[in-house]
Every structure is written in C-alpha cells, then in structure tokens.
Design the sequence.
C-alpha cells in the first residue's frame, strides 16, 4: 500500500465521528508508486460543515480513513487519483465536496445505465443532478442544458463522448466548474485505445476547460496503469491516494477443469453451494446465452445481461436481479460496473477475463456488505484462446495515421463519417486513430455542420517521427495486454496464496504471509496438518472448496 501521511482526525471530522477501521495484515512498504504529498488539513469551520452534511444528507456517522484523505485533497483543490476497493465509498469522495465547493461538479461516467443509477441516488439525497447522454430526448436535453446554464445543477453527469463535443464544452465553459470527476478511471487505459476512443479525449477536454481540479476514481490500477491514468489526465507526482485492494471477506478459489469435465455441471454445483445472489461472468455473448439457457433448463432462477440485448431488456434483467426476483445473473462484462447490490455472496467466472485487473474488478463486486463472499474461477486451458482472439486485432500503422492526417484541413472541419469515407477506413477505426492523434496533439476538434463535432489538422504538423512514436507506443500497449493475459493464466495455475498473487500483480508487492482462507492456503494447511480438520474459512464462509 502507498505509504502516505495520514490525516489527523481533527483535520477532517471530530474524533467522535471517526469509524474504527479494521487493520489488515501488515504489508511491506510500497515503492512502486510515487508517495502522495502530506494530506491537507481542513479549517475547523469546513470540518464542522463536512460533519453536518455527512450526517444530515447521507445519514452517516463517520468517514472511512481513505475517504478522509481524498476529500481533504479535493476540498484543497488538489488533483487526485484515488484507488479504493469496491465498497470503500468512492462516490462520497465527490458527493460531499460537491455540496461545499462553489460551482458545479462535472462527473464523467462510462455507462449510461450507471449514470442514470447515480443520478437517481443523488436526487434521492436531495442533490440537484442532471445528466447528458445519448438517451435523452430533445425536451430532457433542453431541460438539462437550462439547469446547467442557470447554475442550479450541483452535479452534472456526462459520458466521455458528450464531454468531447465542442458544443458541450462551449456550454460548460460558461459555467463555474469547481471539480471534474472521472469515475471508473481505469477505463481510460482499458477502453480508450480500442472501442471507446472518447476516453482519450478526456485529457484534451480538461485542458480546453482550463484544467480544473480533478478527481479520478477507480477500484483497480496497478502501478503502470495508475501512472498512465495520471499522465493522460495531468495529475502530478504525489497525487495518488491508494487504499490497497485487500478485502478480508473475499475468499478466492480456482477450479481447474480438464477438457473432458462437464463445466456446466461444475458451475451448477458451485451455485447450489450458494443460495444467495450471485453473478456468473462469461467472456462472450454466445457463452452467456448458452450458460443462461442451460441453468434455466436445470431449474435455477437466472437472468441474462449482455451488450447485444435491447436497452429495455437489459433494464428489465437488471431490475429483476436488483430486486431479488432473479437469484443469479449470467452476464458478460457489460454488467456490474457501479451495481450497488450489497448482498452478492458469489461471483463465478465461467471463462477467465483478459487480465487480473478485470478479474479483481468483477469478482470484487461480491461482498460489498463486508460479509463473507466467494470468488470462483472455473479454469480450462482452452479458455485462453478466447482472450487471445480478442487481443489479436489489427495493429495501427503509420500509414493509416498519415492517411487520416492527410484528410484533415487546418481550416475546414471534417466530420467523422466524411473522414472515414475519404480515407477508406472503417468508421470505428477512424475514430480510434483520431483519438490517438488528438491526444498526441496532431489534430483538434471544432464545430462542424449542424452542431456536430468536426476535426481539424493541428496548426503546426509534427511530422513522421511523431507518428512513428505513436505506433511504437501502441505496440507497447499491445505487448502489455499480452503480459497481463499471461498473468491471468499464471494466477489460475498458481499454487500460491491467491491474495498474494493478486497483490503482487495489482499493487506491486506480495503479502509476507498467506491469507489463510483461499483454496491454496486451505490446501497447504491440510498438507501441513493432515490429521487436523480444516475449519470453515475466516469470517464464517462455508468450506466449499475444501
């Protein structure tokens, strides 16, 4: 864990409001991340106001230790990357300051469903919140724009795509922006270079807004990912607050399977050992549909969620699961981000994801209430081929970048569809190339016809060597993805403590001792004392994997 100076209790809230935080096992000092600067101390008046809002608006008696440090930095105007595990209360780190800072707080949120859920919860707490995304009709959009222009919106939620639009930036520039929040900030690195290039446009958008104070939030960011997020968003050295990933209520296990094993039967047996809500993740839509159909045919209460379903179908499936009418959700990684279901007792991966970052994000949705929960990976060696296929997309080339640049004019904005047609490249490919060029300063955005965004060449072209550097950087990212996939395979095949492997990969350090509660630790205990009955796992979880 990043070693930072702690905030004195009286610097943020009165001692009576401080909740005791259970101390995890001691870890070695971390050296892979830059140390954060001394956390600022709040004036007594601000501390009193914070305590009043915490209790009066949110009904809470105390802040957690990680929240204190982040909120202190935000209120002091210091840009911050906060890495906090699922269930640690990341949202409160901007919701409380939003009530205290002059002006509005702009929250960049990755998914429309997540944004709507956040907006509803904010309004339930009495916070004036509006949203900007592609699902709004003309009337709702006009109302949101009016609220933003009038200054009546305390919190404004926006997708990366809408944030990047020149028309929206022009509207926001007329307002007083006190804070910009990038929620699920790891998406910048994971998605920005592929199918959501708008994530790479967040940095340029911030610069267009005058680089206001920034808070980036994520549950998972290994040292290299954290450094990349900080670089792309302009967060300086010492701006990272890392609460660590350790969650003692999560019990990890891997079930190794041969090609001859009945994977669906093993999945059913695993789910029957957990009578409370759970999620089953698959790597593909096809697998999700097959698993859902098989489990439903075997009498389990299951729902289905993936990106190819209609919005109404996804909403209905999510509501049934959240309200307890469906016990198990079978889903791709399209489901789960920001889902606040505290009583999830089991997350099973039917197929492994592409990285330990993604695995921890998804498995970490279990046990948000702090009670014991199980995280199980069903592992067959052939599952690796699915992820290898996803990583095998065509690499960008200098020739493609040059074609896009050649199609740009420094004076007449061209729309995306026009550029795709002019270059002969697919629209999605063109968008990804433009995002890379924008982030590197080779092009810029401006208004085009009918309010649509257009693209212009940079005033001073940077030449072929700069394009070659972009290609080299992209190749390095592809190699890093392959390395992360191998780390996922190594986790699945490891005989070491699961938490040790996770912390080594995601924090850059390894626990000096095993967790004592994962499948491998339980096996080592049996080997060390074969005549001693291994008790149920710490925290009372049933010994399913023993």
Sequence:
């Amino acid at each position: 864990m990043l070693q930072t100076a702690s905030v004195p209790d009286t610097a943020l809230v009165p001692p009576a409001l401080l909740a005791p935080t259970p101390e995890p096992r001691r870890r070695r000092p971390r050296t892979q991340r830059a140390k954060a600067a001394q956390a600022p101390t709040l004036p007594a008046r601000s501390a009193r106001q914070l305590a009043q809002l915490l209790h009066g608006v949110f009904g809470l008696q105390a802040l957690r230790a990680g929240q204190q440090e982040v909120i202190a930095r935000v209120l002091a105007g210091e840009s911050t990357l906060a890495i906090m595990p699922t269930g640690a209360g990341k949202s409160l780190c901007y919701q409380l300051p939003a009530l205290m800072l002059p002006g509005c707080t702009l929250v960049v949120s990755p998914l429309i469903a997540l944004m709507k859920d956040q907006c509803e919860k904010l309004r339930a707490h009495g916070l004036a919140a509006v949203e900007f995304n592609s699902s709004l009709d003309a009337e709702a959009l006009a109302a949101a724009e009016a609220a933003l222009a009038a200054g009546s919106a305390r919190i404004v939620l926006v997708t990366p795509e809408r944030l990047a639009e020149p028309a929206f930036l022009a509207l926001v520039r007329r307002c007083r922006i006190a804070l910009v929040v990038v929620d699920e900030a790891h998406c910048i690195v994971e998605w920005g270079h592929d199918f959501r290039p708008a994530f790479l446009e967040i940095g340029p958008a911030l610069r267009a807004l005058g680089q206001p104070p920034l808070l980036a939030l994520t549950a998972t960011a290994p040292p290299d990912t954290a450094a990349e997020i900080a670089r792309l968003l302009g967060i300086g050295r010492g701006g990272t607050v890392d609460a660590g990933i350790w969650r003692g209520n999560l019990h990890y296990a891997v079930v190794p399977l041969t090609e001859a094993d009945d994977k669906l039967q093993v999945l059913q047996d695993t789910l029957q050992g957990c009578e409370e809500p759970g999620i089953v993740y698959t790597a593909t839509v096809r697998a999700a549909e097959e698993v859902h159909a098989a489990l439903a045919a075997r009498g389990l209460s299951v729902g289905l969620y993936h990106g190819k379903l209609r919005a109404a179908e996804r909403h209905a499936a999510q509501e049934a699961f959240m309200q307890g009418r469906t016990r198990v959700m079978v889903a791709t990684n399209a489901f789960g981000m920001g889902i606040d279901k505290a009583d999830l007792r089991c997350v099973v991966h039917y197929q492994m994801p592409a990285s330990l970052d993604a695995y921890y994000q998804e498995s970490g949705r279990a046990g948000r209430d702090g009670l014991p929960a199980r995280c199980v990976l069903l592992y067959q060696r052939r599952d690796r081929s699915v992820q290898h296929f996803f990583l095998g997309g065509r690499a960008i080339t200098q020739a493609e970048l040059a074609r896009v640049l050649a199609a740009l004019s420094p004076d007449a904005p061209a729309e995306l569809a026009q550029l795709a047609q002019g270059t002969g490249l697919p629209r999605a490919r063109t968008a990804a190339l433009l995002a890379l060029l924008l982030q590197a300063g080779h092009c810029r955005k401006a208004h085009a016809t009918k309010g649509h965004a257009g693209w212009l060449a940079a005033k001073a072209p940077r030449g072929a060597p700069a394009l070659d550097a972009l290609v080299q950087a992209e190749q390095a990212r592809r190699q890093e993805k392959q390395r992360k996939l191998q780390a996922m395979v190594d986790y699945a095949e490891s005989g070491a403590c699961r938490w040790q492997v996770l912390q080594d990969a995601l924090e850059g350090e390894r626990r000096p001792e095993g967790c004592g509660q994962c499948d491998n630790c339980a096996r080592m205990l049996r080997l060390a004392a074969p005549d001693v009955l291994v008790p149920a796992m710490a925290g009372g979880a049933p010994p399913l994997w023993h």
